[in-house]
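Quick one, T. Sequence first:
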Amino acid sequence: MEKKVGIIGAGISGLLACKYNLSKGYTPVVFESQGSAGGVWINTFQTTKLQTPKSHFQFSDFPWPSSVKEDTPDHSQVLDYVQSYARHFNLVRHIKFNSRVVGIEFEGAADEELQAWELWGGNGEPFAPEGKWRITVENTQTLSTKVHLVDFVILCIGRFSDVPNIPVFPLDKGPEVFQGNVIHSMDYSAMDFQTAAQFIKGKRTTIVGNSKSGLDIAMEAATTNGVEYPCRMLYKTNRWSLPDFQPWGIPLAYLYFNRFSELLVHKPGEGFLLSILASILSPVRWVFSRIVESHIKRKLSLDKFGMVPEHSFFKEISSCLITIMPEGFYDSVEKGSIILKKLSTSEFSFCKEGIMVDDENAVLETDQVILATGFKGDEKLKDMFVSLVFKDCIFGSSTASLPLYRQCIHPRIPQLAVIGFSESFSNLFTSEMRCRWVMELLDGTFKLPSIKEMEKDAEKWDKYMKRYSKENYRRSCTAALQIWYCDQLCKDMEINPKRKQGFLAELFQPYAPLDYPPPS
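Structure tokens:
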């Protein structure tokens, strides 16, 4: 009997899910709220570039075209590459554009029965005759709604869009008392480039946050206005932003993306010998961090600008917070077109003329404020579900990382997978591996362990993330253990996890997407 799989989102993860569904003979239908495929790459800033070397950010069976020479292509090149992939594999015909999913609801066992199950779905199988998902979809153009019944759902909604993280302010101290504009970086990226340039032209702009979006917007404002209308950036934590991927001439991948680098880290589910080895080799991890940090400090003159972070580079990469510093950023700081302001506390508020920092009396006068404060990805995921039980399940505890087995399956939510929520150094790379894994699960190549065993495995990953990511554990970052993670997926799929030729190559050569070509 034909199985229908509903895929929510036509970004990179959604396109991969669609492609691998077709390769297994399933019938995918992709729901995309926007008018084209590409996800976050559809609406970007003019200066946005890829934050990963393209050798690590590519489809395993669809390399970058030879015409793209840059190591970190710009937004238009990335979008064209992603959309070319969709056209090449004839995926567009399976996508329903301008279709916003209002909610998903499981039809089958009652909530009480679901929570009593010992195996995923009751019997450990990905499909059940009586189990269906109702996907309610709104056409964003006609506002009409339609319900689709599917046998399995793959959520590919990402975590960096749609639900902005807006700080909460006390009464009469929020944006409503400010005489200028206050927008989120999401609103800025939704503008076309000409409108965005006009929005910041001739205005003193304050950026809140020093994430990648904050850095890009600050550079655009500085380039447009110069020192006459300087851009102020408020932030609370110094970050290790890379000037390039060659610290002291050593490719970053040789320090962090080979098997040797992962021997330096305590891993979820590791045995006694690997644990001892990680403890013995931990000084080497410290040395690798210092190599990168010294390179960044030298190239960007961080000491000069008081921008040296207190934490290690390893923590940054373990939290998936690595960014590429926009070219000329600190030149703009030195000229005065960008003014850096570190908050000694994380609290600030608005007044009529601008921003008040809670531990200071002075008003930071400004004409407009752009909040580069990120997104509430977990809220977005939670809001997909109609069931209050599933809402609580998917969100998990606020003091733990998202409880997903293999970063894909919630043990207590049947016939559903999540792709692209957990982060890595290259989200395209891990999304493709996860899509392959989910499709082998659906195809019966392997079965999931019991719910209790899956929950224990998720707890081991939570412990790892808290150990190395610290307060950023909710980002569910696997970047520093990308190979270890892929090994687990490969073993489940009955694929040899060792992809190199020879012992030394296996130990020291970096791993990348082309090491995992799909079956021909």
